[in-house]
Amino acid sequence: MFSSPIQFQNTDTVYEFAKAAVDEGHEVMVFCDVDAVYDLVASQILPDQKTPAKKFAELIAKGVHFLACRESARLRGIDSKKALIEGAIESSLGELALLMDQSDRVVAFGI
Prior knowledge:
The structure is a single chain. By secondary structure, the protein is α/β, with parallel strands linked by helices. The chain has a single domain (about 10-100), classed as Hypothetical Protein Ychn, Chain: A. Helices cover about 35% and strands about 10% of the residues. The protein has 4 helices and 3 strands; from the N terminus they run H-E-H-E-H-E-H. The longest helix is centred in the N-terminal third of the chain and has 14 residues, at about 10-25.
């Protein structure tokens, strides 16, 4: 996923897509790159709102793997070692390429 959490529908679509896939027993990994790294910022979890970070934290608890591009995070002032939701993993485009090669299916959500 490449798009920001607020400007586009992709965050909600990825949430529903990943939720349905994991509920069907599939292994699901979501790689957040470019502005999509904002979806994984822990400070975005608000107790009275269903924010993207809160939704994705729920999916992590269900076994979905969320990876954040460390360089995209760094360029946006996000410390990927400290600021991400619990269970999100910092990663790289090199690892994304390996994961894509090993995966049965790859779906990209961008603008």
